[in-house]
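Aggregate trends can hide what the representation actually does to any particular protein. The sequence in question and its structure tokens are set out directly beneath this paragraph.
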Amino acid sequence: MKDGERWRRRSIRLLCYDYAAAGAYFVTIVTQDRAPILGTVVNGRAKCTVAGRMVWEVWSALPSVYPCVQVDTFVVMPDHVHGILVLAPRVMSDDEALEVISLPTIVGLFKSMTTKHYIDGVNTHGWPSFRVRLWQRNYYERIVRDDDALDRIRRYILANPAQWRR
């Protein structure tokens, strides 16, 4: 093994898949060190902190930044978020260029925007600070293959707070 390869992380992305392709994607993004800074779970229901509400608002605003993106079922847990993003089919008229937006681009924007807002909250409102970064380096994604899978994932997301054990 070469020295530079020793610390290289293995990609969890599906090889040769176009992550700008239209369709639904199930995404899980985890806070660094699994810090429980986004909320609590009380009686099986997720309760957001102010920071968790900010995360919710940024997620909800993604379609205003990228009109080709729709947000579906979403939950903010104490140390992670689960959500479904839907990328619309690419449509291009003859006189306009097509901007291709991929899932990694959208998730990267979400992580950057929430990190910036969180740092502002630390500096102006005394939110708990974080070590090195707000989010873990990577994220989990699953390509939603059909309507049955979409329904199962929606149920999983909505039931996630009731399954919380910490």
Notes: The chain has a mean pLDDT of 88. Strands lie at 23-30, 39-42, 45-48, 69-76, 80-87, 140-144.
